[in-house]
Amino acid sequence: RHLATSLEMARDEDIGSIPADGDRHESTLRRYLGSLRAMGSSPAFDRAFLRYQIRHHDHEVNALRAMRPAARDDDLEQHIDETLPVIERHLNRSRELGARLGVSVP
Hints:
Elements: H1 2-11, H2 24-38, H3 43-67, H4 74-100
Helix pairs in contact: 2-3, 3-4
């Protein structure tokens, strides 16, 4: 179900249209989403989508790990602590699927 939702988001015209100023990672991901939108359903799309998922989830895991020590609000700490393992599972699953399909992510 999550993968199907992600696929729909990758094809959604409104997603990724305006990157935040100075956010190089976000700009790169949004360009990548734009290229995914232009692809038809194919094995190439599957590989490109998994590359995107791996990069995106890896970035999010690293960001949460880096920001967690600075969090002081109990609710925010709890949110990070609950979110991190979910994103790590998504990253691991994306890597597993990617390995199966021959996806290489630098």
